[in-house]
Structures are given as structure tokens and as C-alpha cells.
Amino acid sequence: MQASSPRAPALDATERAIIYRNMLSRRDVRSQFVPDPVDDALLARILTAAHFAPSVGFMQPWSFVLVRRDAIKQQVHDAFLTANHEAADMFEGAQREAYKTLRLEGILEAPVNLCITCDRDRAGPVVLGRTHQKAMDLYSTVCAVQNLWLAARAEGLGVGWVSIFHKAAIRDILKLPERIMPVAYLCIGHVSHFLDQPELEKAGWRQRLPLEDLIHFDQWGGEDSDDALRAEVRAAQALATNGCPPL
Question: How many CB atoms lie within 10 A of CB 165?
Fold first, then answer.
């Protein structure tokens, strides 16, 4: 019998369960913020997690604009309201009315607002790994967002991503230089509770898609007779839907 190749050790079952549980219980928080301040040491930890995200060419294109002044939050909230009214009019009929009932931000309630930006020139005009896909710096910045979000959930902090803005308005309010791209505007703070389902799913806006319908084999639309894998995928999603780590 051929000996197996050396492998890096996996985390033990308890550690894996904690990581999966953190991912499955992460939520986009809008209305559960409480006014308690976020401790500086805690804020430093989640910012550090964001800074240790992967980045193409190790360019680390992100910067972090902390917003804690009420006057700035109010300006951002006003910019959201303008865009949100426009967004509602893009839907029709019952969907428009349903949209108007949704809570889509916690800008004023969250003790900390954070804009994560991308400096597209940070590593110069030619960046390893971005030579043929120019958006890789933006994707790297989104990895920093996800790192921060998961770290915040582990710390019991809620995070809400507000995307309904005109970028020019945010750029003007935060006085961002022209080369700096605002990627994510986040509301961060302690919360009264985390919902057991994503808020839009709970409200009936959309349901989670079956994972097995999203897997292709070798080419787009490619079929495969691996029924065992499909069964494992269905079982793992069922466990995850019930909040259980798919271990």
C-alpha cells in the first residue's frame, strides 16, 4: 500500500466547530445595536484581524476611516436616505412596498461607523497578481471586510454593511482623496441579540439557494455522477441551516 503524503494538521474538532459556528451565526445587523461604547482594545483586535487579510501581491490596499462623531454620522445617514428613496422607486408594486418596510442600516445607533477603503495605487502601477485582473485590489479589500466581520462576531459585536449610497457623497463627507475608493461602510457595535436567520431571509425577501444547484463539474453546466458528493452537500447545508457546524 502506498504511503499517504505528509499533510498539514487540521484543527481539532472543537476548534473547527467554533470557526464554523462563527461563520454560520454571522449576521448583517441593522436594528439590534445598543448604545454601549466599543472598548478601544476590542476595536484594535478586529481592525488587526482585517489588516491580516490576504491581498494580491501583498499590496494591503485597505485603509480604515473610523467615524464616531454624531455630526458625521448624520451626514452619512442623510446620504443614505437620499439613495434609499431612489432605490425604493427601482422596484415595482408589492416589492416596492415590501422594500419600504425593511430596515437597511444602523448608522446613527451604532457607536462606531467604519469606512474600509481601497488605495488602488498603493503598490505602484504594476502589481504582482493584478497584471491581468485589475479588480483584484478591490477583492482583497473585501477579504479585509470579511475578516473584520468574523472577528467582530467572535467578540459579540454586530456589523452591518450599508451599501445604499452614492459613492461621491461618501467621498465628499469623509474627504477621501480621488484615488481612494470607498468599498464598505460598516456600522459596528454591541447588540442586544443576533437573529437566528439573516434578516432579509426572515422577512421573506429572498431564501437561501440550494448549494447543490450552484456546483458545476469541470465546466459550466457540467454534470457528474458523484451522487455521494451531492448527498454530502445536501447534508452539510441542512446542518448549517439549523445552525449546526457541518463537521
Answer: 19
